Amino acid sequence: MALNTTSTLPKGLLDSAPPMNPNKSPVVCVFCGASPGTSPVHLEAARSLAQALHNHNISLVYGGGTVGLMGEVARTLAKLSGPAAVHGIMPEALLELEREREGHIDEERYGRTTLVPDMHTRKKLMAKEVIEGGPGSGFVAMSGGFGTLEELMEVITWNQLGIHGKGVVAFNVDGYFDGLIQWVRTAVSAGFITPGNAGILVEALDAEEVVQQLKEYRVSEDRFKLDWSQG
After folding, report:
1. Of 113, 142, 175, 187, which residue is most buried, by most CB within 10 angstroms?
2. What is the greatest pairwise CA distance in the chain?
3. How far is 145 from 182, CA to CA, in rounded Å?
4. pLDDT surpassing 60 at residue 192
């Protein structure tokens, strides 16, 4: 099936987003590795997260890969909920790294795919879908490498700056994010993160807890009160 493409940057994340519709289905953006990891627990967690998304009628937006944890989440959810529940957004330069077959994707297996020119457009489009989603929308990080951590830190920072107010969850599989969670505590004690803003990132130990944390997410009172509507 032909790939959808886009070559223009969307408007600001907030200025084009309508008020949240309580009747709209939630959208979750998942950041995770394009590798399966050395332990089978990571692929098992990817499948369990897809099952939880299906159980709660949650759509997925993700980086568009068909390999590693990315592919496992997308493939499992597309099988359970149908391809309309999955939207992958991928820079053209990454096709050869994050696709089983360069330049081709079976959209019945992995959902709709949008090709974009660069990483910034990818991240902005993914965030826009989450911001425009219904209650329970948010961002979830699973096990991954540098890219996963960078994407996670960016949406945490955007939350702190008031660009969005959606939940940010670290799905801590087999202690993978223990070091990151301890770093947040250290940054609080050292005076670089306020205690309230430490709660921007919440931890979940299983897939159902991921969904629950997103549903119950509360915005930090310590966030910066900035106006981004003119951006």
Report:
1. 142
2. 52
3. 18
4. yes
Q: Measure the CA–CA gap between 117 and 138, rounded to whole angstroms.
A: 24
Instruction: Read off the pLDDT band of 23 (50, 70, 90).
Output: confident
Task: Identify whether the C-beta of residue 17 lies closer than 8 Å to the C-beta of residue 131.
Answer: yes
Q: Which of 85, 75, 63 is nearest to 142 (CA)?
A: 63
Percent of the chain surpassing pLDDT 90: 78
CA–CA separation, 147 and 216 (whole Å): 27
Half-sphere exposure of 108 (CA within 13 A, CB side): 1
CA distance 52 to 137: 13
Reply yes or no on whether the pLDDT at 17 is more than 70. no
Angle at 202 between CA 200 and CA 208, to 5 degrees: 140
Tokens 């489009």 — which residue? 125
For 66, the token pair is 């068909």
For CA atoms 28, 33, 36, 41, give the dihedral sign. Answer: negative
42 CA to centre of own chain: 16
Looking at residue 32, its amino acid is C
Using the structure block, give the residue that is written with the tokens 């509507």.
229
Alpha-carbon distances, residue 17 vs 131, 160, 163, 207, 229 (angstroms): 7, 19, 11, 28, 10
Question: How far apart (Å, rounded) are the C-alpha atoms in residues 17 and 79?
Answer: 30
Token pair recorded at residue 92: 């053209």
The alpha-carbon radius of gyration of the chain (Å, integer) is: 17
What is the SS3 assignment for 163? coil
